[in-house]
Amino acid sequence: MSQVADAISYLKRSVTLAKSRELRTYVIIPLIFNILVFGGLYWLSGSWIAGWIAAATADWALTGSLSFLNGALHFLVDAAILLVWVLLLALFASVFSIGVQLIAAPFMGFLAEKVDIQATGHPMPDESIPAMILRTFKRELRKTWYWLWRAVLILFVVLVVYFIPVVNVFASAIWFLWSGWLLAMQYIDFGADNRQVPFEVMLERLKTKRWLVLTFGAVVMGLTMLPLVNLFIMPVAVIAGTLIWVEELAPQGNNETA
User: Fold this and answer.
1) Where does the record locate the signal sequence feature (predicted)?
2) Distance separating alpha carbons of residues 185 and 97, to the nearest angstrom
3) For 252, left (φ over 0), alpha (ψ -120 to 50), or beta?
4) How far apart, in Å, do the first and last CA atoms of the chain sit?
5) Sign of torsion over alpha carbons 21, 125, 193, 95
6) b or e along 142-156 (b: 16 or more beta carbons within 10 Å of the residue's beta carbon)?
7) SS (HEC) of the chain
8) Which is nearest to 184 in space by CA: 106, 255, 110, 249?
């Protein structure tokens, strides 16, 4: 239970740090980027679909004895357009954050680096740009392989459980917890990657405090599903993940300058 409380405490600390003068710039830039991209795509998609509905129903009108229903007909069309905006918001809330994470990853790396230096007082390891690109590329391939085959396996388990009466209530929980673990790994790995800790070592360190990692990922996962909140949670989660790494999980001496 102490690890569960620690995970929530790290997120609360991160909200405060995100508003600090030292980190504000690194938080605001990706935040503005997210809002512009999210808002732009949301407005374009909603306007296009709403315009199509309005054009398709422009000639809808009842005549004769049924003309008194035209008001209700127009109300239903307006309600359909409103429903489109609401459904689009829900869709963007659940899917868009994945794309934003990929696009905003470089900004998140800089934010994690700033948090690490502020927390440890030690500079980042020296590394040339070509070496960094090659190392990062290899790490992303390794990370993709880690979650891909496991996701397929867990999806199979979830599908099997789903068709078992009574037990099927746990199917969604299994997938949610697995997704939370992956999300926690992603955010914590920013700190480990900046310190050039091998991916396998990072994974082993995560297992030393499973409940801390799982609670952190599950809470972030839940917040990511909330419309608009998912625009703000990413930099906060990066700060929290970096703090969890440097204060709880990093191998002794890892955050010291070589």
Assistant:
1) none
2) 16
3) beta
4) 36
5) positive
6) ebeeebeeeeeebee
7) CHHHHHHHHHHHHHHHHHCCHHHHHHHHHHHHHHHHHHHHHHHHHHHHHHHHHHHHCCCCCCCHHHHHHHHHHHHHHHHHHHHHHHHHHHHHHHHHHHHHHHHCHHHHHHHHHHHHHHHHCCCCCCCCHHHHHHHHHHHHHHHHHHHHHHHHHHHHHHHHHHCCCCHHHHHHHHHHHHHHHHHHHHHHHHHHHHCCCCHHHHHHHHHCCHHHHHHHHHHHHHHHCCCCHHHHHHHHHHHHHHHHHHHHHCCCCCCCCC
8) 249
Q: What's the chain's average pLDDT?
A: 82
Q: Is the pTM of this model over 0.85?
A: no
CA gap 190, 242 in Å, rounded: 7
Provide the percentage of residues in the chain whose pLDDT is more than 70. 85
State how far the alpha carbon of 167 is from the alpha carbons of 162, 171, 174, 214, in Å. 7, 8, 11, 22
- At position 72, the amino acid (one-letter code) is A
Q: pLDDT for 2-33, tens place per residue? A: 878 888 899 999 999 988 888 888 888 777 87
Residues with Cβ within 8 Å of residue 13, at least 6 apart in sequence: 240, 243
